[in-house]
Amino acid sequence: MADIRIGNCSGFYGDRLSAMREMLEGGPLDVLTGDYLAELTMLILGRDQLKDPSLGYARTYVRQVEDCLGLALERGVKLVSNAGGLNPAGLAARLAEVATGMGLSPSIAYVDGDDVRSQGYPGALTANAYLGGFGIAAALAGGADVVVTGRVTDASLVVGPAAWWHGWQPTAYDALAGSVVAGHVIECGCQATGGNFSGFADVERSRPLGFPVAEVAVDGSSVITKHPGTGGAVTVDTVTAQLLYEVQGTRYLGPDVTTDLTSIRLAAVGPDRVGVTGVRGFAPPERLKVCVNELGGHRSSVEFVLTGLDIEDKAAWVREQLSPALTASSVTWSLGPLPAADADTEEGASTLLRCTVQDALPDAVGRAFSAAAVELALASYPGFTMTAPPGSGTPFGVYRAEYVDRSAVTHTVHHADGRTEVVR
């Protein structure tokens, strides 16, 4: 059976908007994925939904699909992403509206069941289990041209299409583990092609870095590459760097398989082509990881610029002046490194004193804080200035990991024809 060519066009919510078109036009693909979710992103989407319950998905994905849907359909490329975030049904409906407005009629499916707030997380803004790839596989098997999901693991965006293409069963652990490795390598986009890479000096940088492609074989082995003519590089070193990203041990636990990272073998098999072989897999853990985000309160900060002589005395004085006016439950001061003596420039002779306040209530970090800081402008240390006036305060979130029994999660595929399918 032929390998499946899976490209990636997004490593996070905010990645290069033009990447979807670049990937579709740059070379042959069977599936184009996009990873838009992170723990912080789930918090951002949760705050979006507090303002408008119809939101909760990555809105930039709508813009990308609007620009590229016709091209993807023309070239027979399936679009798979986790841009659904907290509201995959809402994103699927919005994409259907966009397609209709363009005179197109793609089959759009969505996958949900990851929202587990009802499973005992009172007060949580978001609580989402990390689902595996077999919901995506079922959606593609049902004829979907576009699949959007909620919180699946990043690698599941590759595992699902590979399992569909090759017909893998849930116990094909070695093959599944191989696709997890391929998915982990390409999930962060250009980090696999030279982005955030310590050897950047040797990377081709005259053009924008290309996004990665994984060619996944029936046995789960793969070749990591990129489209010809794009910037960056795919080498054993760039792939290794991404493989070690966010890895904490030799057993990489996922919802579909446990991957033995010590079994991976990498080898250059051509220019910008790295082969990934030998990957071994075992049964997945009994429980699923859950991303829980809670609203932690409100916070604000101000930065004072201290210049010249007696830096520590200046810092102590402004702290003595401001501290009595602060009512927030948490106050944190931090002083930057002391400048070198006899600096050549004013900037070189300066450092920053930061005051950060946090409280459950917004008033304690709002005008009461900002006004107290600004009122010192003509009554404090010589050369008083701030990097910017303090703002009105913003909400902040607190993330924690939890775990849930698989039986508590209903991994569900909503097909374009209205059918629903539960992934067992």
Q: How is this structure best summarized?
A:
With 424 residues, the chain is an alpha+beta fold. It has helices at residues 19-26, 39-51, 59-75, 88-101, 134-141, 156-166, 173-186, 236-243, 311-322, 367-374; strands spanning 4-8, 31-34, 78-81, 108-112, 126-129, 146-149, 212-216, 222-226, 251-253, 258-260, 265-270, 273-277, 280-282, 287-307, 330-335, 350-359, 394-405, 412-414, 420-422. The longest helix has 17 residues, at 59-75.
What does this structure look like?
The chain has 424 residues and is an alpha+beta fold. 27% of the residues lie in helices and 26% in strands. The chain has helices at 19-26, 39-51, 59-75, 88-101, 134-141, 156-166, 173-186, 236-243, 311-322, 367-374; strands at residues 4-8, 31-34, 78-81, 108-112, 126-129, 146-149, 212-216, 222-226, 251-253, 258-260, 265-270, 273-277, 280-282, 287-307, 330-335, 350-359, 394-405, 412-414, 420-422. Strands 11-12-8-7-1-2-3-6-4-18-19 form an 11-stranded mixed beta sheet, sandwiched between helices. Strand 11 and strand 12 (273-277) form a beta hairpin. Helix 1 packs parallel to helix 3.
Descriptive tags:
424 residues, alpha+beta, eleven-stranded mixed β-sheet, 10 helices, globular
List the helices and strands and how they pair.
Elements: E1 4-8, H1 19-26, E2 31-34, H2 39-51, H3 59-75, E3 78-81, H4 88-101, E4 108-112, E5 126-129, H5 134-141, E6 146-149, H6 156-166, H7 173-186, E7 212-216, E8 222-226, H8 236-243, E9 251-253, E10 258-260, E11 265-270, E12 273-277, E13 280-282, E14 287-307, H9 311-322, E15 330-335, E16 350-359, H10 367-374, E17 394-405, E18 412-414, E19 420-422
Parallel strand pairs: 1-2, 2-3, 3-6, 4-6
Antiparallel strand pairs: 1-7, 4-18, 5-14, 7-8, 8-12, 9-10, 10-13, 11-12, 14-16, 14-17, 15-16, 18-19
